[in-house]
Amino acid sequence: MLYIVLVLVLAALGLLVTALITASSLWAWVSIGLSVLAGLLLVADWLRRRRRSSAVPAAAPEAEPVPETEQAPEAEEQTTLIPKAGELGDPADTPEPVAEEPAEPDEEETPADDIAVLADLDDEVVVVDEHPRYHLRACPWLGTRELIPIGIGEARQLGFTPCARCTPDATLVAAHR
Asked: Are 166 and 126 in contact (CB under 8 A)?
């Protein structure tokens, strides 16, 4: 339905340009007519979706709780209610599930003598925008995130701290020694 509205709006725009170029009011009126038709289709689609979502039956009322002394051992198990077909409404109205992002890794503890060695290194580490840690490229926490390569000295100057999972400080200091 929205594609039809898009085509009508683009046609109306083309006819409006034609009306301006040719100075013909006929094309302008046809453009206005197509715009009105597109608006009516949008309203009809909105009403159809609204009617469909209001036709979804209300959730079943909750059963009265049974006192603990009367509950059977089987009642302790949780059951999952699976909605029947058509109860969920329009698939376009349901939100997409959001994948949980793994927790931010802890900060690696770096000895003071290693920090002096790291200041002289030009090795490259990677950072992720909006995250406070720098990592080695092979860090499992990175996954498919967009990486920003940066020198380790610059990363430390900018306030990034080392990741405890991939231990970039210990790895780079060991490789340097």
From this structure: no
Q: Scanning the structure block, which residue is given the tokens 């009642």?
A: 75
Cα 67–Cα 69–Cα 72 angle in degrees, nearest 5: 95
User: Residue 56 in contact with residue 89, Cβ under 8 Å?
Assistant: yes
pLDDT at 100 over 80: no
Edge-to-edge strands, sheet with 124-128: 147-151, 124-128, 133-135, 161-162
pTM above 0.70, yes or no: no
Q: What angle do CA 63, 67, 69 make, to 5 degrees?
A: 140
Q: Which amino acid is at 132?
A: P
Residue % of the chain over a pLDDT of 90? 14
Count CA within 13 A, CB hemisphere, residue 19.
Answer: 14
Burial string for 76-89 (b: 16+ CB within 10 Å, else e) reads eeeeeeeeeeeeee
C-alpha to C-alpha distance for 174 and 110, rounded to whole angstroms: 12
